[in-house]
Predict the 3D structure of the following.
Amino acid sequence: MILSPMPEHDVLVVGAGLAGMRAAIEAQREGADVALMSKVYPVRSHSNAAQGGINAALSEGDSWESHAYDTVKGSDYLGDQDAIEILAREAPAAIVELENFGVAFNRDEHGRLGSRFFGGAEHARTYFVGDFTGQAILHVMFEQLLKHGLTTYDEWFVTQLVKDDQGAVRGVVALDMKSGRLELFRAKAVVFATGGMGRVYEPSTNALICTGDGMALAYRAGANLLDMEMVQFHPTTLKGNGALLSEAARGEGAYLLNKDGERFMKKTAPNKMELASRDVVSRAEQVEINEGRGVDGCVLLDMRHLGAELILERLPQIRELALEFLGVDIIHEPVPVRPGMHYQMGGIKADVEGRTTLDGLFAAGECACVSVHGGNRLGANSLLETVVFGRRAGRAAAQYAKSVGAPRVSEAWLRDEERFIASLFDRPPGERAAALRLEMGQTMTRDVGVFRTGEGLESARRTIAELKERWERVSVGDKGRVFNTNLVSVLELRNMLDLAEAVVASAIFRTESRGAHARLDYPKRDDANWLVHTVCRHTAAGPELSTMPVVITRWEPEERHY
Amino acid sequence: MEVTLRVFRFNPETDERPRWQEYRVTVEDYATVLDALIEVRESVDETLALRCSCRSHICGSCAMRINRRSGLACKTKVREVADADGVVTVEPMATMRVIKDLVVDLEPFFDKVRAVEPYLQPAGPPPEREYIASHEDMENVKGAQACILCGACVSACTVMEVDGSFLGPTALAKAWRFVADPRDAADEKRLTALSGPGGIWDCTHCFMCVEVCPKGVAPMERILDLRRRAMEAGLTDNNGSRHSQAFVDSISESGWLDETKVAIRSTSGPLELLGWAPVGIRSFVRGKVPLRHYKRPGAEHVKRIFRRLGELDGKGRRGRPGAGAGARAATPSNAPGKAGDAQ
């Protein structure tokens, strides 16, 4: 047998979407030996799905303060204002850097960057590449990755965070999906940029890979999770398969109607109407549906008045989706939509340098909670977060790596994981992972959705606890080692169940309504008691909840009006 | 609705050779082939391996062959491809090694993307702010930036099927994206490299990549544009561009193709010509070498068209053998046996 040397790097970045790639590039610029690991090839990452654009106060008359204020207000004052200031201040340079990297951003008549309006914003500060901004940026970042010659471990699935004797994170155990082999990776610092957890819900706009692996691994390893109850529901997902219809539709002037043909947004957001923040619009829709003014569990997105010309030129993808899946031509008919799970504002608690509560572990992107989105994220701020905080986490991790000695971790980590995986293969035929996931997802949508009640949340808590127990009997039907997606799905389900538990516990804990967390039994925002983050920590007895102050620099909480 | 998926199966750990397996599943009317495959994997057979993620044709994971045609499973409706008996055949991408079932080895694919130095190479340090670039130029580049690196075009490429050294439609479309980008300053280096063996002149214009691309990137069009740019840059000392020019010359002189002359003029000289002698002899024996070449009636009119074209682009009679000019002809730069329209 040939023994290959144990892979070792100064910085190991896990997750190769925008945040991960940006972190890896920055860590290398800082002089670190960096490797990037992902369960998919970098260009398959979910950053691809961002359509509308990326925000920055770059145009004349706009200011970073205005961008920051919109973000603070959008967050329902739960975002940390020091972090939001950094996000808004660094945004212009981040967009220019992306342009310089080669992104073919839309131009104005002078050949300069041209922007568009987006929801919840006072200025047109969204920069874009057609309706595939995320994909364009992700692929250009991949080009930069190749330019920098970074080492990548493609299609490696991380199963465990590894610590040294002092409890500092010093690597991971990962499964090479192509061979089925487990390997111990040593690193002085680990950066998680593992993305969101949309698959905890069913349906979700998220890709199948969005299973929250990094959040769950960090959580089990003792890192704090923050504001996990803050789950964003996008107001316009298609009836049936839940496909996302971009905010661009409402940006172009689409109406939301109830069954009586009424523009119901005038009741809750008389000024911004359909372009209020996403939490506000989703709630208004759900009220219409719940009070019997919906159409078959949906409301109607009406674009007829925009005319065929505009629709064909600016909203062709939306038209195609509605035609393809429902046979509805938006030129002639309104299309039924409903709120659908879209984004996790919460995540691994990280400071503005990406440092988590675990020594040696950094986090950036959707898996992290810095927190810039607070209770509700504004459209086009998520791409921005990945590059601004990806860069900062990469830099901090590289600097941290310089300050610590060679990683010393025991081989026992690897042997334990090998035993664990073997035990999964050895399980007798039992339940299927897919069936449990569906049950989990439907439970989360029903009981931890747009509106929540103490009763519903308790019911969800019991169901998730039961599903966790049943997970112990889930079997791996595929006994092969090579590209065993069945094994991976069982491991992903374990991660998702832990996160579902954390989301439910956090939602039970916060007895107020703020941002995306709307409790019918506590319908008011309660700044006196709840202008705080929810902190969720993993213990043997289950999630342990506490609070942490929100950082307020210059914008005192006010009531939100749109 | 019910569908029978006839799926290519291969498990390297247990199978000596690939086999077919049929699965009958019930899916929604609007279901895609990917939805059906996921239904199989989740409810029928957990051992089925495939890559998939976004379900909305943006991540590029689920490229495969459906009824022999390369494409994204998530963009292919079951009801549109099922035959009269409700059967859909699903196979892994072609021109790539199978790892397991529908999962192929993508390393050679990404190696080729890497080979074209696929990153912006501007002149000097970046400006204070963004580069000034016209909306039209960016729109132009955007067309190629829409590529999601799914591999469908490579799977369908008829050159890659027989010649693994060809850079292929994905990598060449990627290369075009930089040559066409006004911010990139490495055109000459890029075009020189792309004019070499395995590069732009190895495409046989079969249109398969254009037809299967799920994002409308039309790689072949970009390859032809690279050829035009390469010739304009004076990179003509290669069989491909000589062939193109000889083709144009032949048409403008006689109104149609003088195959013998074009073949001879495409080579670098007598020495190379000698090397092609066996092919020439075989062709002769099989009556493929016309002994005499006549001017077509009306050749003068063809000549007039060329003259007018030359006046239009100010380059005289030797116009621009770009898109289409060399179409449907065997390019001598190709190895014998893989000529474009010889079949």
Summary: The two ends of chain A are 67 Å apart (CA to CA). The mean pLDDT of chain A is 95.
